[in-house]
Design goal:
two-stranded antiparallel sheet, single chain, about 45% helix, elongated, alpha+beta, two-stranded parallel sheet
Length: about 80
């Protein structure tokens, strides 16, 4: 019987590191943790598709892009097995 590694999450103001190695057995827990973190940072609209992309010439584009990349960074800061 294989053991699934425990999930340990630590969050500090300096950033969010999930420290999770994803597999089919822990994805549901990971996705809930990520959604809670992203919602807590008031960025959930970026993964829910509720923040439309402004045109690149719009003054708000740079801020939108930076926020989108921040959220993407939280999501991909994982290891997949």
């Amino acid at each position: 019987m294989s053991r699934t590694p425990a999930i340990h999450v630590q969050s500090e103001n300096a950033g969010f590191k999930s420290g999770i190695i994803l597999n089919e057995m822990n994805y549901d827990v990971w996705s809930q943790i990520m959604e809670m973190h992203i919602a807590g940072c008031e960025k959930l609209e970026y993964i829910m598709g509720k923040t439309p992309q402004p045109t690149e010439t719009d003054a708000s584009y740079a801020k939108w892009y930076a926020e989108k990349q921040k959220v993407k960074g939280w999501i991909i800061d994982i290891h997949v097995t």
